[in-house]
Amino acid sequence: MEKIVSLCKRRGFVYQGSEIYGGMAGLYDFGPYGVELLLNIKKSWWNANVRMRDNYVGLDSAIFKDPRVWEASGHVGGFSDPLAECKECNTRIRVDKELANIGVTADEKMSEADLNKIFDDNRDNIPCPKCGKKKFSEVRAFNLLVSSNLGDFTNDNKNPVYLPGEACQGIYLNFKNVVDTTRMRIPFGIAQIGKAFRNEISPRNFLFRTREFEQADTQFFVRPNENKEAYERIKKERWEWYLSLDIKEENLRFKQHDNLVFYAKDAWDIEYNFPTLGFDEVEGIHDRTDYDLTQHMKFSGEDLSYIDPNTNEKYVPWILETSMGVGRVFLAVLSEAYAEDTLGGESRIVLRLASHLAPVKVAVFPLLKNKPELVEKAREVYLMLKKEFGAVEFDDNGNIGKRYRRQDEIGTPFCVTVDFDSLEKHDVTVRDRDSGKQIRIATSRLGETISEVIKGKSFSELS
Known about the structure:
Blueprint: H1 2-10, E1 14-16, E2 28-30, H2 32-51, E3 56-59, H3 68-72, H4 75-78, E4 80-85, E5 92-94, H5 95-101, H6 112-122, E6 140-143, E7 147-148, E8 161-162, H7 169-173, H8 175-181, E9 188-197, E10 212-222, H9 228-244, E11 252-256, E12 266-274, E13 278-287, H10 291-300, E14 306-307, E15 314-315, E16 318-325, H11 326-337, E17 338-343, E18 346-351, E19 362-366, H12 372-389, E20 392-394, H13 400-410, E21 414-418, H14 420-425, E22 427-432, E23 438-442, H15 446-454
Parallel strand pairs: 3-9, 19-20, 19-21
Antiparallel strand pairs: 1-2, 4-5, 4-6, 7-8, 9-10, 10-16, 11-12, 12-13, 13-16, 14-15, 17-18, 21-22, 22-23
């Protein structure tokens, strides 16, 4: 994981937030290559969950919402993590995670009394991560919502407005709007990619646990008690999407929740086997019954029932939810793609990203930068490919080997070199990132050929 973090900074994938001021814990900025990879992951998710489906629509709801939304959702009263503080150096720890590190099961949904009992039984085995001492305060519940003074001009903050603790609430708030303004009929789904904010006690593990992050959520609305078949189908579809990112099946697993919240019928996580960190959650898939819409009906006074247009039956739909951490999947994709190998007798670092996810699809090189005719021809090829693929780089700095290594490190699938033969024969050399194999392709067929490989054709089939 340290090597991946280093690569992210060195090659412009991820920077520490506010780094020039010393950095802020749990906050990160996505650099030029990182933001392209992030966008490609979100595009893949959006295509799979919205554009390729007949019964899903998209949404982008406002970040700020009426404070009563978070009362209805349970976040104001119950959205908390168990916190204890070192009495020597004031470092705060998340108790359930520290207990898990020594093999003791605890759950953030437990009462403070139960958590304190478990913590007291294991205090001697939990050192402070900063000073190493084992002197901690009692466990207390710490609410993770981040409050704001939006619209409050009194400075007393008596009626705080909250940043979203999760992105999905806007879908529930707009359920009735979608039904009234579209042709969607149950069963149907609503998808959204949105920001969430949590005042994490101990942000850690790079992008895995942060204080600002994105979630990609779907809520699928079904008739009451018609949940099981759809739930199993959704689980299968989400698993297959991860495989489409070139994540190996052996690095994924399903894990069922041991302790369900009172309203849930079932809950499973998809976990990825992160280097150094091991298996941990990237997405939750939840059977939430009618809890969410019922709560918002209760707190808003608005009837969110659905009336079947064919039978006139009225009911509150049940909801099947998927909730993916976009940053976590970004980290999983990088982890899966990262490799060190030897090519042509030289060691290299390479990101074997799926072509459709790569931040740069093609890099174009003139063989020599001091030969105007080669540079001019390479520029022609570059502009032609840029019109078709957008994410194309022109690089004439250093020898060809160094250029290849730079592109390997950012995951560029194809490098195109314009040489003296290209001027006469109107063809170019195309190099494959993974194998290092090179073939000659006519310039007129270049875009078409690269498109075929991006869509799944093997590079070896081109020769």
